[in-house]
Design a protein that fits this description.
Layout (H helix, E strand, L loop, with lengths): L9 E4 L6 H6 L7 E6 L10 H13 L6 E5 L3 E5 L7 H10 L3 H13 L8 E5 L2 H9 L4 H8 L8 E6 L8 H15 L9
Antiparallel strand pairs: 1-6, 2-5, 2-6, 3-4
């Protein structure tokens, strides 16, 4: 996984830790901080061009945000969903290029690095990072349920966090402020409300 290049943030690939996500959370401090989850993009079938294309398209098709529905006046409802697809021309090009093993290896490396270029799925804050992140990873949590409904495997996410040190005059208001600024700039798609 590429480095974030910022000393303030630490990242853990939940799927790379022996023992899985629950073992990974034990590496997180019990301090106050702000955290986020990113989709991990990892292509597993580089040896088979057809399966490789299916994996790429599955990532392209995954929703970037949860669906939203609301009432619009007394007679109408409106629904919004995120959607993404490749054009027919790009789809044909992907199929053609994927017959080349070097292209598949190259695209797999690019997409793996792109995991940290996307908007986070979720941004949150906690007085105890380890405890709060552990709650999210419970399969029955609201966040785990939302991600599962979108076809996202939460145990394969990348966790990124920063600790807000006591020396930085941490207070609840600072924690709330940092979380809101990060959320408003990074625009996480699976947050129910900001702030």
């Amino acid at each position: 996984m590429p480095s974030l290049g910022v000393d303030e943030f630490r990242s853990i690939d939940l799927s790379d830790v022996v023992g899985g996500a629950s073992a990974a959370v034990k590496r997180v401090p019990t301090a106050s901080g702000v955290y986020s989850f990113f989709r991990k993009i990892k292509l597993n079938r580089e040896d088979d061009s057809g399966e490789f294309v299916k994996e790429v398209l599955a990532y392209v098709d995954q929703p970037a945000a949860r669906p939203h529905s609301t009432k619009c006046g007394p007679l109408h409802n409106i629904s919004l969903e995120s959607a993404s697809t490749l054009s027919e021309k790009k789809l044909t090009q992907l199929h053609d290029l994927s017959s080349n093993a070097e292209f598949r290896a190259y695209l797999a490396r690019v997409l793996s690095a792109a995991s940290m270029l996307q908007s986070p799925m979720y941004v949150g804050k906690a007085d105890d990072l380890q405890s709060r992140i552990s709650q999210h990873l419970d399969p029955s949590s609201e966040l785990a349920t939302r991600l599962r409904q979108a076809g996202i495997v939460f145990d394969e996410a990348i966790l990124v966090y920063t600790v807000i040190e006591e020396s930085e005059q941490r207070s609840d208001s600072v924690l709330f402020l940092v979380e809101e600024i990060v959320s408003r700039i990074c625009r996480p798609g699976f947050v129910l409300r900001i702030g």
